[in-house]
């Protein structure tokens, strides 16, 4: 009798975790989030312990941890983090400053959208890395081409996604604002921008990942420090444990940024979450 109750309870627990469209309880959600990190780590440890793959190709978690510790103690790790983060933020902030107003304008004024969208849509399909030779010719090999590469790889996606979020503003809100005597400025800043803000923040949260992907490519342009540069050097000397360590750092920074944007969304748009 007791065992059958336990079975039913376990069954209901798993059904509650994976019910379609049902938000799991807070404790269950935390359990799933922790499990998503621990299970790959456990699998990685088992593979290394059983020596199913050579340590040259798959270093153990302990070897990666010691490599991370060595880089932290020498100061290399923090120098790389500072350099890469600075490049990403510079390129992404410039892209945001340009893309958000442009996207709002394209979403609000169909004629302006017809003028700009074909060109931006075409540029979006040009790989940012393909601009590297031109950026070196035009801007040299210092920080400018690295930041420009991140900017190019992010700005077009931001513009089109912001434009799409503006198009979802209810027509009723726009008509009501105009009926009550609102002008174009009121419509843009008090209605369209505010209504689209949650989607814009979410767009930035998604597209900053593109900037982090591009920093690896950007740091191939004669960089002396940076996470991408360190990965390149580690690959040259077959230091796979260092490559894994740098990748984990990139993942942790990316996860932190993602959580920061989610926190910003909850703080500034409580009505939308």
Could you please describe the fold and organization of this structure?
The chain is mainly alpha-helical and 273 residues long. It has one domain: MetI-like (MetI-like fold), CATH 1.10.3720.10. It has helices spanning 2-17, 26-49, 61-74, 76-108, 110-124, 132-139, 143-166, 171-179, 184-218, 227-236, 240-268. Helix 3 (61-74) packs across helix 11 and helix 10 runs antiparallel to helix 11. The longest helix is centred in the last third of the chain and has 35 residues, at 184-218.
Protein traits:
single chain, 273 residues, mainly alpha, MetI-like fold, 11 helices
Using the CA coordinates, give the radius of gyration.
24 Å
CATH architecture: Orthogonal Bundle
Strand content: under 5%
Q: What is the fold-level CATH name, i.e. the topology?
A: MetI-like fold
**Residues in helix, %:** over 70%
Largest sheet, strands/sense/barrel? none
The CATH superfamily label reads MetI-like
Number of helix segments?
11
Mean pLDDT: 86
- SS-derived structural category: mainly alpha
Q: What is the top-level CATH class? A: Mainly Alpha
Give the CA-CA distance, first to last residue: 44 Å
* Residue windows where pLDDT falls under 50 for at least 5 positions: none
**Count of domains:** 1
Order of helices and strands: HHHHHHHHHHH
Say how many strands there are: 0
From the spread of the alpha carbons, the general shape counts as globular
């Amino acid at each position: 009798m007791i065992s059958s109750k336990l079975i039913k309870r376990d069954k209901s627990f798993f059904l509650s975790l994976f019910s379609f469209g049902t938000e799991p309880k807070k404790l269950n959600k935390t359990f799933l989030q922790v499990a998503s990190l621990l299970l790959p780590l456990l699998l990685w440890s088992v593979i290394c312990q059983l020596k199913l793959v050579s340590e040259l190709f798959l270093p153990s978690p302990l070897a990666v941890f010691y490599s991370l510790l060595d880089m932290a103690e020498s100061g290399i790790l923090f120098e790389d983090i500072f350099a890469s983060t600075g490049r990403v933020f510079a390129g992404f902030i410039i892209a945001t400053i340009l893309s958000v107003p442009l996207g709002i304008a394209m979403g609000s004024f169909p004629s302006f959208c017809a003028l700009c969208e074909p060109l931006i849509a075409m540029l979006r399909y040009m790989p940012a890395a393909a601009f590297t030779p031109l950026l070196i010719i035009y801007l040299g090999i210092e920080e400018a081409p690295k930041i420009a590469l991140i900017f190019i790889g992010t700005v077009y996606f931001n513009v089109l996604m912001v434009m799409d979020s503006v198009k979802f503003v209810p027509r009723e809100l726009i008509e009501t604002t105009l009926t009550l005597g609102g002008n174009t400025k009121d419509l843009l800043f008090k209605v369209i921008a505010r209504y689209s803000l949650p989607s814009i923040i979410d767009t930035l949260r998604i597209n900053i990942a593109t900037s982090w992907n591009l920093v690896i490519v950007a740091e191939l342009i004669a960089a002396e420090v940076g996470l991408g540069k360190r990965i390149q050097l580690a690959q040259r000397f077959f230091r796979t444990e260092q490559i894994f360590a740098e990748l984990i750092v990139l993942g942790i920074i990316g996860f932190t940024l993602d959580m920061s944007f989610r926190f910003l969304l909850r703080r500034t748009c409580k009505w939308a979450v």
